[in-house]
Amino acid sequence: SAVATAAAGLALHFAKRGGHESLGFFAIFALAMVARVVSVSYLGRMAEPPYQRTEEDSFTFWQFLRALPRSNFAKFVFMVAGLNFAAHISGVYFVVYFLRELKLTYAEFMISQFVLVLSQIPAVRFWGKVGDRYGTRKVMIVTGLGVTVIPLLWMMGRSPWWCWALQAWAGVFWSGFNLSDGLSALFCP
Length: 189
Hints:
Layout: H1 2-17, H2 21-45, H3 61-66, H4 72-101, H5 106-134, H6 136-148, H7 150-154, H8 160-187
Helix pairs in contact: 1-2, 1-5, 4-8, 5-6, 5-8, 6-8
């Protein structure tokens, strides 16, 4: 991800300088499509054991909703879905904010995305150890709070350095949240 981010950002930067911005976007999207096709071919080769359904696995959507007041799993699902929904709806506007409002170049934007990806690598290891010691629920609470303040922090600065610092913050907290929500889903009663 980090290498692809850097390559795409640099390609757009140089394509724009050469007056071929549209061609740069076309090349990046074409390469992304090829990478997805290759990915699908590898996924198709994977062996997956057949799913053995048990009686306790069976419930309807209405049973799930009725259990909401007393079910930790249902509360967990709505919390994770709500946070991810809000993040994905607002996330598309951040690109516009970076490029139009902050007036970042494609190279600076690439650095912001690169920082986001690179900050996740050591953070996942850190949050994994914290989760092993204190539990994934506590990691989810801390990282969920860290993620929810990100929009407020964007209002505090406009420089590329502030952008990169916030992207590092986002990478650290999103990595812990994503790690804990995946693990919690496996072990929720």
